[in-house]
Hints:
By secondary structure, the protein is of the alpha+beta class. It is built from nine helices and 36 strands. A hairpin with a 5-residue loop joins strand 22 and strand 23. The radius of gyration is 28 Å and the shape is elongated.
Amino acid sequence: MSALIFSWLSSDVVVSAAELPNDPEATQWSYQTTQVYRAWEEARGSSQIVVAIIDNGFDETHPDLKDALWKNPREIPGNGSDDDRNGYIDDIYGWNFGVQKPTDHGQNQSSGGGVFSVKHHATVVAGIIGAAGNNGRDGAGIAHGVRLMNLQVVASDGAGGGDIAPLIEAIYYAVNNGANIINISMVGTGSAPAVRTAIEYAYQKGVLVVGAAGNDRADLDLSPRFPVCVDAFNPYTTIIGVSAIDDNRRLTPFSNTGSTCIDLTAPGIDIGGPIRSGVQNDEGVSYASGWNGTSFATPFASAAAALVKSVRPSWNVDQVVRTLKATVHHTPSDDERAYQKAYGSGLLQIGRAIEYAKLGLVPQARLFVEGEYDRSFTAPRRILVAGAGQSMYVDVLQGNKIQVSAPYLAHALTFTPLRDLQGAVYYAVLRQKDTREQTVTVYTAEGVQKFQWSVPAKTYVLSAADVEGDPSKEIVLMASDTGDMTIFALDGVKVGSFKGVEGFRKGFMTTKSIPSTGRDEIIVATELAGGVVQVRRITSLITLPEVLFETPVTSLGSIAYIADTKDAERDRIVFGTDRGVGGVVTVYTVTGIMTQTFRPYDLSFRGGVQVHAVVYGSEGKEHLVVTPKHGMHTLRIFDHEGVRVLDRSLEVVTTPEARVITAIGAY
């Protein structure tokens, strides 16, 4: 029989009465390291957001919890009738799913160096999430404006174990009765298909489940636990798995790990919270510190999700998950696989998550993408300008400039979606490893590392295209010093290559799915000795590159391909110049006829321009985006004919290494 155990560890604690006014225990290291105080500047939680605590039943009479209770609005208390016809009679604050009723008021153990009973477990968890704030007693929950649903599935007799069936029923109850977030600070072993089905049901209904990693130092990749691992092989996240760190931001010795189960990490050592019926015991204690375990890291993530939902109640599970995972603190690691296994995306940063939610941003991946997407990957809404040590998004529709940070930026990166044969979407990033090697890292759409492999250290242009003729895309690397091109599968297997052109000086590459042919093309513009630019097209690995045209261009600086959805004769290849010669844009047909040349900025601008094609406007047509390659200037968008259609007063700050990349998709 599958069984559940709490994800907590006992600890020797010294308890002292809380005497200071205004939540004297609200100050603790765990709040500081997860940016709780920063989050409170923007959000405290909404009474419209309900967090279900599936546990051993928290103390509904506790002074710090009694006013935070979810109350069933369709049930009349004490009339012995199932008024709302949900199958449960007088379920006012939640439900006890057939286990011991918590009647152990006043039976706390002595504070004289002993350990507290597990019967306090749910009360501590509930308090971390939603204990009352600004009432002058004990602590304050991270999301102390939300409502807490009390669902007991494990006995509160100190044993800390239970059967799986009540957990499944409790998940369905929470979803069907209005919960937005479900906290499960427990783990179980064995097969749990019914739990997986229940959590998938929650996901489909827009309810986010958060689960503890567990405390037995297990490798969850080898020995999975439920519910934390039920979505291990899903292309999307249905449950956020939380590991635990100590006050040095190191993984605790007890926390389970697993690259397929852990999504993020949070504090799990010396955590404080309310304890069961403490005001009725001999010492008059209602709060205690010293709680250890992933049980108490998990409610940090649940509370963060509740705050995000409070700010953006219409957001679905994917949007909340991406916001939490993409705004973490991620310490650069020499071994990203090991980092992900221990910490997932990184350390929860609640303040940053709330700031993004306030702006309406849904970051896509933890390292580089900070924009909004949908599953169709169409119509970009934001444009990422990425430079060495900084990045920013420009909201094309709203005209807002949003400065965002990244732990470290890549030498080359592509956000062209790399679909595999099953339709899952990935993104590839190239960055320097050491003086001899660079690494190509392939991330899932949620920013979780999937593959990583090495290439020789040099400057590359990175893109993606289907050159094998199957539904998946390959990763394309072009060496900037020779023009040599190498094609890789997502896992790093080399599938083809092309030599650079004789007389190569420098080159630029772009990839495009051509609507008129339905195939991907790689377009390479190579500047040769003598100032001639040769444009070649590659459509497959089994055919030689086709020379489209040659033309004199002064100091090639960038290339873009604008495809017309209906008329292939209107497809355009666009060049931007490098710095020193002035910002000039030149537009050609695919047969080499120059249709126009223009300056996107005034004659005093000498910085060179970066060009890129994006879908813009309600008709879904591709337009030309121009930003400066260096310095500061205005972002501008032009149509096929070079007519300016957007001229926002946006100062786009870039660096010599900057590039513009389209964000794929928009809500």
